[in-house]
Prior knowledge:
The protein is mainly beta. Helix content is 7%, strand content 40%. It has a single domain, classed as Roll (Carbonic Anhydrase II), CATH 3.10.200. It is an enzyme of class 4 (lyase).
Amino acid sequence: MKHLNYQRQSLWQKPTDVLCQSPISLTQATSTAIKGQFVTIEFDCVTTRKDQIVGEQFISQGLLNLFGNHWHLERFHFHEHSEHRIENHYHDIEIHFVFKHDEAILVVAVLGDVTIDSPSKITRLFENNYARFELSPLFPDKSNYYSYQGSLTTPPFEQTVQWVVMADSIQISASDLATIKASYPSNYRNEQPRQKRKIYYHITP
Ligand SMILES: [Zn+2]
């Protein structure tokens, strides 16, 4: 399938009504700290993998409780390197878990870095072993996170997206990174202006 050409992203369809775009740079110093608002996610098992214009998608189910709503997991995918910059640092990968509540969209982003030698469970996903795949190891142990309002990072950019960006990264190996890169080569959107947006840093126990 034909995929988005990230070398030509300046030519992508321009957003019309959602001026606050993603990704952006996130730092604790420029965020408002909030205590609590814990993210809880219950996952079912991954069922299918689907190639789309925006890249390969893992279609899955799960439930997230946040901001007083239940959000249903629809799919997840990878970016290499990260799209968000955390404390002025790009990470090796970023995983996007796309949730919906009616028509509203919330994306949980998890950053990952090459820090271990042996392949993590991520490699199993790409070997088509996603039946009964546990998604929880794809999340960091600590659950501090940033939240802000932005957009999808692939066209169309119209709809407002609630972002939850986990502050701590997960550990992957060089071979995991090579596997991810084969399916998602340099698929990161350039950083977008913050505008006057409020960014929150949630400190959870
Ligand atoms: Zn994404």
